[in-house]
Amino acid sequence: MKTRDKIVLAALELFNEHGERTITTNHIAAHIDISPGNLYYHFRNKQEIVREIFLNYSHELLERFEPVQEQSESLVLLKQYLDSIFTLMWKYRFFYANLPDILQRDSSLHGDYIAVQAKLQANLKNIMRTFLSLGLIDVTEEEIPNFVTSLHLIASSWLAYRSAMNADEKITEQVVHQGMLQMIFIVKPVATTLGKEQLQMLEDGILAKHSD
Q: Taking the model in full, what pTM does it have?
């Protein structure tokens, strides 16, 4: 693996474990046993590393939430998108947990974030139309934008909300899964009978993972 990639992976690991604000470039360099000068050869400062992580995140985000063509198995499709939400929230949890602060410190990154989220919103609207065609939800075309906004709001702010409610709470997989359950709760009122049955199966699966 190239040194640049090692730096990015190390930063992501440390940011997730300790929070982005508490980690310096020296911490990152020490974590992969390179000199600070070697790190600065690849990145001028920590903010450039954060931008690189965001670039990786945005590529994965848009790829995972690209509407699937010719997908007839509604349960498979629902599970695929819920799994994608979990994967991204967990993999980039430092970003989700401290989003307003990170964006406020970097206007360029904030602009990139807005552009990526606009593309995501468009993809999510098309995904909801697919769910509608599969008979999973019962909403009008006019209601889809507000419905998508509600789901997007939970996904993007859930970890920040939990951190604000309890500053000492450690972000765990269970906390992320609770965010997924909140999204299911929002979908249930507009779900068809088929949709409710399949949402319940997914909800039971999530709860079973944390029943011990």
A: 0.85
| Residues 204, 142 within the same domain | yes
The 3-state DSSP class for residue 88 equals helix
- Phi and psi of 191, rounded to 5°? -80, 145
- Residue-wise pLDDT for 142-195, tens only, equals 999 999 999 989 988 998 888 888 878 888 889 988 998 999 999 999 999 998
Q: State the Cα–Cα distance between residues 129 and 157, nearest whole angstrom.
A: 24
User: Number of structural domains, the chain?
Assistant: 2
Check whether residue 17 and residue 114 sit in a common domain. no
Which residues constitute the domain of residue 31?
A: 1-44
Sequence-ordered alpha helix ranges (H) in the chain: 3-18, 25-31, 36-42, 46-64, 74-91, 93-97, 99-104, 107-133, 144-165, 173-187, 193-209
